[in-house]
Amino acid sequence: MAMKKKPVTGMRDILPQEMELRQYVLSEIRRTYREFGFTEIETPVVEHIENLTSKQGGDNEKLIFKVMKRGDKLTAAFDKGDLDGIADSGLRYDLTVPLSRFYAENQASLPSPFKALQIGPVFRADRPQKGRFREFHQCDIDIFGDGTNLAETELILAISTLLNRIGFGEKYGFHIVINDREILRGMQLYAGFPAEQFEEVCISLDKADKIGAEGVREELLSLGYAEEAIKKYQDLLASLGDGAEDIRKLGETLAEMDAIDRKVTDNLAEIVEAVAAIAPEVKVVFDPTLVRGMGYYTGPIFEIRADAFSSSVGGGGRYDKMVGKFTGQDTPAVGFSIGFERIITIMMDAEEKAPVNGAKVAFLLDKKLDAAKTQAALAEAMEKRKAGEQVLLVRMAKNKKFQKEQLESQGYTEFREFYQETWN
User: Fold this and answer.
1) Domains and CATH numbers, the chain
2) In order along the chain (424 residues), what is the average pLDDT of each group of 10 residues?
3) Short-list 336, 275, 306, 343, CA closest to 174
């Protein structure tokens, strides 16, 4: 059977130019998040199947790459006809579930609050498309042990600082939208939707950006919800703005019907006000239709949206119940993840390159260069490298013009040519 050159569907090879850009962005991620006090940790890519199928990951649980049992255990499962039991682990579909397990296991040796940075590959058996792969990197920052909105504010400031540093804000424009799961719940109660149908109604509301308000209305009607409730909900949406005062006014309206605790809306408004006061260049807007699909969110939720991409380029929220699934005791937790692959896709489409620190010099050695002069060229290159310069030694090609053009496309700006007769 012939070997296959192409990678497995949904996976991909990364060429040098993109790899340089990825490494540059990753270095800025680490530098920025360290400045905000985040500590980098790592978890395995393989996770217990029970953790991955705990009804915390929403639709992602349908996309798990399962890892079968091995040896006698696998044979026994097949002999019993237990097809659901042939897997005992799987590739992680996000970093949040493994991180929560990590914190539950190691919290005794971790500071409180604990500010975690985690970068690594995740896997989803999804349908590949532009900017979406079956293997991709996530870059998460999470805070455990802080139940105040200081945590959300710090996450937003850290993320926005990073995006501005890599030029994402200036070139592509981004803003952060914010909501709260309790506001979603309160608005539904206010309108008259059954409390037990919260998730189903949210699924329809989450399609508003694709099918519009009328499409949402028709879908809710088709599901059997009362037209009066739908109208009351959509009238409330139409009356809202996107600022902190609008959040507070919504809180007043919902509190009058005992549909929400005013602390929820005041908390969200304080986050928007804090970011506006500290980093006025960062646009944070209230979006009462923001849902976020993960089942583990319990409070504030947020997304990053950019003019250059139709989908979000990051998101997160508070998940105070997740650690308790492991320990039996709830722990305040909130996290924010940038869409690393989507950001890289946008930058690559714009033909961006990683900035070069210092000169990139290419030494072109003529094929007739003898051993002594070759060693002299090597020695000179080593001296430059010790001084922090990037030096490439290559044999001179027949088509020197084309060779230089290729090297220039890789960022090389200086060239030295070494011949047996003379050194230029």
Assistant:
1) 16-179+267-349 (3.30.930.10), 360-418 (no CATH)
2) 88 92 96 97 95 79 84 69 75 94 96 96 87 88 97 97 90 91 92 87 81 87 89 90 93 90 95 95 92 83 86 91 93 94 89 83 93 93 91 93 90 90 67
3) 306
